[in-house]
Amino acid sequence: MLRSTTITFLTTVLMTVIVFISSVLTARLLGPTGxxxxxxxxxxxxxxxxxxxxxxxxxxxxxxxxxxxxxxxxFLVLSLFVVSAAATxxxxxxxxxxxxxxxxxxxPLVVLVAVFxxxxxxxxxxxxxxxxxHFLNGMRIFFVAGNALFLxxxxxxxxxxxxxxxxxxxxxxxxxLSAAAGVWAFRHRIWRINVRSAPASVRExxxxxxxxxxxxxxxxxxxxxxxxxxxxLGTVTQFGFYTLAFSVSRLIGSVQEAISTSLFARFAGKxxxxxxxxxxxxxxxxxxxxxxxxxxxALASPWLIGLVYGADFRPVIIPFxxxxxxxxxxGASATLAQRFNAAGAPGLVxxxxxxxxxxxxxxxxxxxxDNALVALPLLMLLCAVIRLVMTLALYHYVLKEPxxxxxxxxxxxxxxxxxxxxxxxxxxxxxxxS
Length: 434
Prior knowledge:
Blueprint: H1 2-51, H2 56-66, H3 72-98, H4 101-105, H5 107-126, H6 134-157, H7 163-188, H8 202-233, H9 236-249, H10 254-267, H11 272-309, H12 317-341, H13 346-356, H14 358-363, H15 372-397, H16 410-430
Helix pairs in contact: 1-3, 1-5, 1-6, 1-7, 1-8, 1-9, 1-10, 1-16, 2-5, 2-8, 3-5, 5-7, 6-7, 8-13, 8-15, 9-12, 10-11, 10-12, 11-12, 12-15, 13-15
């Protein structure tokens, strides 16, 4: 667990730096309106690919981890077909919903981005079949590094860059990753299983998939519902401002995302006791420090946003500050939710996700073009707080266990220090300094 967490943490730190650089390049190359069009196209494509997952990959990982016999070869092939078909249909619906003429002209690119996003997302989950997470981390880092590298080449080679050009970059990287994932799956024969338990029925496989999918769908909606609303309600330029604020604010939660991934990969269908201890430690070590980091980022944002992205992007500041805190709180509840997902109870997480969206749904009629840039982040923050409170309530009322502590114990801090030390040692070793 420690080794995989260290590697994932290192990968996440590197990815955070690269994603930040990419966001600056994209904003500088396209400007507010061009970035709005690119973000809208990317939202439709990536959202379609993610929604098309149907919970099939997590069910695959869970039942493989539990040692339940099943025809995993047929399951894998059918899943890839279903995900691709669903992504195509959803991307077409998203383009029709958006109704922007410039986006409609780029429909082949958007649909292909959706399909390859669906395939990449599916294999990212399947990569958790290997607890060391080497291939998963390789896919993550190649995706952001490949996009950044092509962006730099594009900026040097072309005097004028359109959103379609950057969309093509995304498509090339996604296609390469999907091909690499197929080769990885074949080489490792990921459909082979060491049977330890009774056979799994189709009903059990699909039941877990649907519960996990419901929870994941609510998570996806919670993270993107604001952007979907703004895409229909606001202008393309406003959409560019908001999506920049959202994407940059996500950088602070990348560590929590990496930890949640490691927890599910290590404990899905396995030892619940060790899972519980690891979840509690991860939550207590990250929550307060990241809230403090969010406060520092909020205080520095009026100066940093204008310096890094330019004066045209100053409307990003207020939504960025609010979304920083929302991101940390959302990441904390996602970490705690692994106690239920990896233990085979995703239905509880689904219920929590569904209820937490109520403020966002109720608030939609009160949104206007004038207040959306501030009101939407505030609604997102309220939803995040409700999710965290409900997750803590599940510990008390469902598990009948003490609430996870916010303040880390001495042993927790020692574990975090060990991960950081190992991470620094690996980083300097890679650079030839040790």
